[in-house]
């Protein structure tokens, strides 16, 4: 890597990626992924939100996607739409039907200036590389991306890759997709190595607790068996519980959910002069945990030992530790940003961890709920799949076609920066599904 002269970026060039890709310089490369931390960097990249607001809102733009039994409805006119703001009907002044970046049809009493240029953001919060990511890149770069589109990719190492027009023109699209696939694989292997190691240590610690309580199982590896024997013959269950708690704390320390970073990203992206679409790939979290049979055995054997019972309770509290997330605030901030946020939740089989002694327990309910809320608030999609590519094409296609509606609020009096106006869109005399942003802040 060599610094680019007079630039805050560095250029990445290697044998598999002979063209240059701008990467935002960061002070420190994380050795393991910290959840959501990449939003911190991208927020800084986009710049601070302009704090100057008009006292009243003049025009409100509402992208809307209309579906009938899952199929997009293309033949609607301005008179088919109903918009309500805080329950009050609004007069729609203009409607534009857009495919990709083209305005295919328009009906306007007052001419507007729609911005149809596109900027795509790909976030990857994963710890284990999946080869199907190549299918994601191949489809996007060969089937969707237009020459004037912008693309930003945030890797698991929290590196921000901005693909310049020159980079996109340097070689065939399918080769660019392959290059990015190789970069992402490399970054995932590096950033996820420590996480995977500690996760395996936690699984081993769980097995040791089971061994010290009910004895070794058939086929137990010598390393774990020797370690378990030493622990059991020395400090016993107390040692194993303490070791388990330490590993659990290490794993939890890698899990950082920064609501502040999320809000900064939304506020920063609001300033961008283009149509912004986010694809957020998130890997389901499954942690090793003792199965109920082992837990009941511990509680039965040590019910009169306050230290053991306290340790078990501490582990339970640490395992179920969830930081509070203000989903209502995230919903409002992201709806106001007018970004289209799509959440791709990549499943991991609990059987990848589970054994007769160890169970794989879901540990990402809070993350799933928060990002699903953001997606719904922006008119985006939440999809759950076993691989990154499964369902991506459908999600991507859903971003290509939409109606753009404009209205001037009948109530122009703002109550301040916290005056959130709720938007509702429906189709007259039809029970169609309409996906749109949830509202905006009247400033």
Explain this structure:
The protein has 443 residues and is an alpha+beta fold. 37% of the residues lie in helices and 27% in strands. It is built from twelve helices and 21 strands. The strands form four sheets. The protein has a nine-stranded mixed β-sheet with strand order 1-2-3-12-11-10-13-15-17. Strands 4, 5, 8, 9, 18 and 20 form a six-stranded antiparallel β-sheet that branches. Helix 2 packs antiparallel against helix 4 and helix 4 packs parallel to helix 5. The longest helix has 42 residues. It is globular and about 80 Å long. The two termini are 45 Å apart. 37% of the residues are buried. The N terminus is likely disordered.
The DSSP helix count reads: 12
Strand content: 25-35%
Overall pLDDT = 81
Unreliable stretches covering 5 or more consecutive residues: 1-44, 47-57, 222-234
Spatially, the strands of the biggest sheet line up as 1-2-3-12-11-10-13-15-17
Termini separation comes to: 45 Å
What's the β-strand tally? Answer: 21
Give a quick account of the main beta sheet: strands, pairing sense, barrel closure: 9 strands, mixed
Structural class: alpha+beta
Shape: globular
Radius of gyration from the alpha-carbon trace, in angstroms: 25 Å
Q: Level of helix content?
A: 25-40%
């Amino acid at each position: 890597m060599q610094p680019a002269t007079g630039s805050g970026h560095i250029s990445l060039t290697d044998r598999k990626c002979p063209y240059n890709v701008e990467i935002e310089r960061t002070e420190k490369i994380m050795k393991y992924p910290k959840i959501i931390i990449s939003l911190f960097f991208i927020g800084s990249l986009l710049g601070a939100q302009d704090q100057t607001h008009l006292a009243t809102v003049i025009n409100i733009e509402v992208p809307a996607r209309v579906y009938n039994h899952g199929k997009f409805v293309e033949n609607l006119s301005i008179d088919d739409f109903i918009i309500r703001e805080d329950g009050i009907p609004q007069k729609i002044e203009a409607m534009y039907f857009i495919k990709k970046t083209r305005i295919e049809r328009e009906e306007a009493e007052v001419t507007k200036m729609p911005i149809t240029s596109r900027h795509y953001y790909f976030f990857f919060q994963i710890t284990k590389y999946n080869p199907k990511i190549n299918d994601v890149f191949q489809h996007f770069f060969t089937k969707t991306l237009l020459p004037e589109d912008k693309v930003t990719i945030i890797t698991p190492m929290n590196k921000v890759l901005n693909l310049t027009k020159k980079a996109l023109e340097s070689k065939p699209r399918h080769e660019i997709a392959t290059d990015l696939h190789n970069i992402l694989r490399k970054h995932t292997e590096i950033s996820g190595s420590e996480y995977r190691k500690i996760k395996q240590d936690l699984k081993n610690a769980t097995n040791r607790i089971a061994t010290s309580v009910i004895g070794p199982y058939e086929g137990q590896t010598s390393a774990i068996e020797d370690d378990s024997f030493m622990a059991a013959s020395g400090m016993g269950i107390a040692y194993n519980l303490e070791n388990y708690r330490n590993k659990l704390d290490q794993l939890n320390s890698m899990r950082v959910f920064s609501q502040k970073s999320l809000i900064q990203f939304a506020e920063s992206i609001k300033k961008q002069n283009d149509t912004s679409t986010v694809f957020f790939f998130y890997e389901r979290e499954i942690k090793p945990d003792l199965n109920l049979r082992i837990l009941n055995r511990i509680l039965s054997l040590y019910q009169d030992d306050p230290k053991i019972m306290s340790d078990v309770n501490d582990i339970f509290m640490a395992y179920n530790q969830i930081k509070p997330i203000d989903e209502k605030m995230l919903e409002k901030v992201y709806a106001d940003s007018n970004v289209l946020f799509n959440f791709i939740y990549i499943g991991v089989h609990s059987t990848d961890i589970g054994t007769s002694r160890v169970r794989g327990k879901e540990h990402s309910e809070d993350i799933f709920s928060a990002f699903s809320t953001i997606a719904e608030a922006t008119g985006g999609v939440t999809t759950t799949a076993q691989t990154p590519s499964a369902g991506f094409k459908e999600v991507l296609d859903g971003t290509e076609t939409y109606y753009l509606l404009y209205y001037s609020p009948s109530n122009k009096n703002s109550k301040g920066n916290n005056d959130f106006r709720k938007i509702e869109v429906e189709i007259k005399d039809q029970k169609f599904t309409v996906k749109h942003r949830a509202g905006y802040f009247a400033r």
